[in-house]
Amino acid sequence: ADRRSRQTNPLCGDDIEIWVKFGSGQKSLSNGVINDISFFGKGCAICIAAASILTDYVKDRSKKELTKFSEQDMLSLLEIEVSEMRKKCALLSLALLKDCLYVKGKS
User: Fold this and answer.
1) 3-state secondary structure of 11
2) CB 100 within 8 A of CB 3
3) What tens digit of pLDDT does each residue of 51-90 get?
4) pTM here?
5) How is 47-79 classified by DSSP, letter by letter?
Protein backbone atom coordinates (compact mmCIF):
# COMPACT_ATOMS: atom_id res chain seq x y z
CA ALA A 1 0.00 0.00 0.00
CA ASP A 2 1.09 3.55 -0.66
CA ARG A 3 -0.87 4.90 2.30
CA ARG A 4 -2.57 3.54 5.39
CA SER A 5 -4.45 4.97 8.33
CA ARG A 6 -6.03 3.59 11.50
CA GLN A 7 -8.50 5.17 13.88
CA THR A 8 -10.84 4.14 16.63
CA ASN A 9 -14.21 5.37 17.79
CA PRO A 10 -14.11 5.04 21.59
CA LEU A 11 -17.86 5.70 21.91
CA CYS A 12 -18.78 2.57 19.95
CA GLY A 13 -15.59 0.50 20.04
CA ASP A 14 -15.01 0.70 16.27
CA ASP A 15 -11.38 0.08 15.27
CA ILE A 16 -10.67 0.28 11.53
CA GLU A 17 -7.51 0.38 9.42
CA ILE A 18 -7.53 1.20 5.71
CA TRP A 19 -4.87 0.66 3.03
CA VAL A 20 -4.77 2.57 -0.27
CA LYS A 21 -2.71 1.71 -3.36
CA PHE A 22 -2.49 4.22 -6.17
CA GLY A 23 -2.06 3.20 -9.81
CA SER A 24 1.40 2.01 -10.78
CA GLY A 25 3.56 4.09 -13.09
CA GLN A 26 2.10 7.37 -11.89
CA LYS A 27 4.67 10.09 -11.49
CA SER A 28 2.95 11.60 -8.49
CA LEU A 29 0.44 10.44 -5.92
CA SER A 30 -0.98 13.97 -5.77
CA ASN A 31 -3.56 13.27 -8.49
CA GLY A 32 -3.26 9.51 -8.56
CA VAL A 33 -6.10 7.10 -9.12
CA ILE A 34 -6.89 4.59 -6.40
CA ASN A 35 -5.97 1.23 -7.87
CA ASP A 36 -6.75 -0.84 -4.80
CA ILE A 37 -8.20 -0.18 -1.36
CA SER A 38 -8.95 -2.48 1.55
CA PHE A 39 -9.82 -2.30 5.21
CA PHE A 40 -9.66 -4.46 8.29
CA GLY A 41 -11.16 -3.97 11.67
CA LYS A 42 -13.95 -4.54 14.07
CA GLY A 43 -16.92 -2.38 14.80
CA CYS A 44 -20.64 -1.95 14.74
CA ALA A 45 -22.71 -2.83 11.68
CA ILE A 46 -22.90 0.80 10.52
CA CYS A 47 -19.12 1.25 10.70
CA ILE A 48 -18.30 -1.98 8.85
CA ALA A 49 -21.01 -1.41 6.22
CA ALA A 50 -19.81 2.16 5.64
CA ALA A 51 -16.20 1.01 5.20
CA SER A 52 -17.26 -1.69 2.75
CA ILE A 53 -19.45 0.66 0.70
CA LEU A 54 -16.75 3.35 0.66
CA THR A 55 -14.01 0.98 -0.51
CA ASP A 56 -16.24 -0.17 -3.37
CA TYR A 57 -17.08 3.42 -4.30
CA VAL A 58 -13.56 4.90 -4.35
CA LYS A 59 -11.79 2.24 -6.40
CA ASP A 60 -10.65 3.66 -9.77
CA ARG A 61 -11.45 7.24 -8.71
CA SER A 62 -8.87 10.03 -8.63
CA LYS A 63 -7.50 11.70 -5.55
CA LYS A 64 -8.66 15.02 -6.99
CA GLU A 65 -12.24 13.74 -7.25
CA LEU A 66 -12.20 12.19 -3.79
CA THR A 67 -10.88 15.27 -2.00
CA LYS A 68 -14.26 16.84 -2.86
CA PHE A 69 -16.19 13.88 -1.42
CA SER A 70 -18.00 15.20 1.67
CA GLU A 71 -19.50 13.77 4.83
CA GLN A 72 -22.93 14.33 3.31
CA ASP A 73 -21.85 12.39 0.20
CA MET A 74 -20.79 9.52 2.46
CA LEU A 75 -24.08 9.53 4.37
CA SER A 76 -25.95 9.52 1.03
CA LEU A 77 -23.96 6.48 -0.10
CA LEU A 78 -25.25 4.52 2.89
CA GLU A 79 -28.88 4.96 1.81
CA ILE A 80 -30.10 4.72 5.42
CA GLU A 81 -30.99 7.29 8.05
CA VAL A 82 -28.11 7.69 10.51
CA SER A 83 -28.78 9.32 13.88
CA GLU A 84 -26.48 12.01 15.26
CA MET A 85 -25.18 9.49 17.82
CA ARG A 86 -24.11 7.08 15.05
CA LYS A 87 -22.60 9.57 12.56
CA LYS A 88 -19.10 8.97 13.93
CA CYS A 89 -19.57 5.27 13.12
CA ALA A 90 -20.76 6.04 9.60
CA LEU A 91 -17.99 8.57 8.90
CA LEU A 92 -14.97 6.81 10.42
CA SER A 93 -13.89 5.19 7.15
CA LEU A 94 -14.19 8.54 5.34
CA ALA A 95 -11.87 10.11 7.91
CA LEU A 96 -9.36 7.32 7.24
CA LEU A 97 -9.60 7.82 3.49
CA LYS A 98 -9.03 11.58 3.89
CA ASP A 99 -5.95 10.80 6.02
CA CYS A 100 -4.62 8.62 3.21
CA LEU A 101 -5.29 11.27 0.59
CA TYR A 102 -3.55 14.07 2.50
CA VAL A 103 -0.59 12.32 4.17
CA LYS A 104 2.78 13.05 2.57
CA GLY A 105 5.23 10.18 2.23
CA LYS A 106 4.53 6.53 2.87
CA SER A 107 2.99 5.34 6.11
Assistant:
1) coil
2) yes
3) 999 999 999 999 889 999 999 999 999 999 999 999 999 9
4) 0.88
5) HHHHHHHHHHHHTT-BHHHHTT--HHHHHHHHT
